[in-house]
């Protein structure tokens, strides 16, 4: 597990050009096919720019490169190193009508990051995340999980890379408020209910939490309140099935009661500031 250093108590500083950098990155990002919404993409850009500490920005699940391009644009501007992008590029999204899966999104991914001008700022891995985590040894400052949405898949992603997440780093996961079992269960059961994490929340369907292994207990009340609301979604999800009727209505109503809208950059920075505790 990574350890603290003298920089851990430094307050977060928001670059004066951050909004313009993120807006410019979105103009490129929105040209890439994908499922990431505008405010979700911009939130990832913000996390890339301001998450405390050194370390890699690691993405699990690249598909055609939408989130990769956003992260790489911001990281390149601020000199934060390449985005480590892990994906076997054989998502069920690519399954053919006859049930076969001989397609790959890898060529599209490579073309998209080249056209976006960020290929030199991406370290692609055509592999399953478990293949990479088995030999991974580098510190991580931002872990973006958007791969296999099954419970086992998300938990394996978290377990495989958590030992390398630096204190005050951030984990963000996609589709936590959508109809998938893995993201919501892992976020509630493994993160919100763990004293290793501090501030946490949602931006639309992205769930995020800051790794605070030394003082996470100080944030217990905030995490517990959020977990109580989010946990109500768990019995309602039916992965692989479309929600219908009363269950669909209950799901949407329950989700609406979970705060999941963006804050200002200053508000996010205050949440993530290592020097601030509730």
Give a summary of the structure in a few sentences.
The chain has 278 residues and is α/β, with parallel strands linked by helices. The chain contains 10 helices and 7 strands.
Percentage of residues assigned to helices:
25-40%
Number of domains: 1
What's the count of strands?
Answer: 7
- Helices and strands, in N-to-C order? HHEHEHEHEHEHEEHHH
Biggest sheet strand line-up = 3-2-1-4-5-7-6
Give me the CATH superfamily.
Answer: Vaccinia Virus protein VP39
Note the gap between the termini.
25 Å
In the CATH scheme, the class would be Alpha Beta
Strand coverage percent: 5-15%
Instruction: Calculate the mean pLDDT score and round it.
Output: 91
Q: Which fold does the CATH topology refer to? A: Rossmann fold
Give me the Rg, rounded. 18 Å
Please supply descriptive tags for the structure shown above:
278 residues; alpha/beta; Rossmann fold; seven-stranded mixed β-sheet; 10 helices; 7 strands; 38% helix; globular; disordered N terminus
Description:
The structure is a single chain. The chain has helices spanning 18-29, 38-50, 66-78, 106-115, 129-133, 151-161, 181-192, 220-230, 245-256, 265-272; strands at residues 56-60, 83-86, 122-125, 140-145, 165-173, 197-203, 206-211. It is of the alpha/beta class. A hairpin with a 2-residue loop joins strand 6 (197-203) and strand 7 (206-211). Helix 1 packs across helix 2 and helix 6 packs across helix 7. The two termini are 25 Å apart.
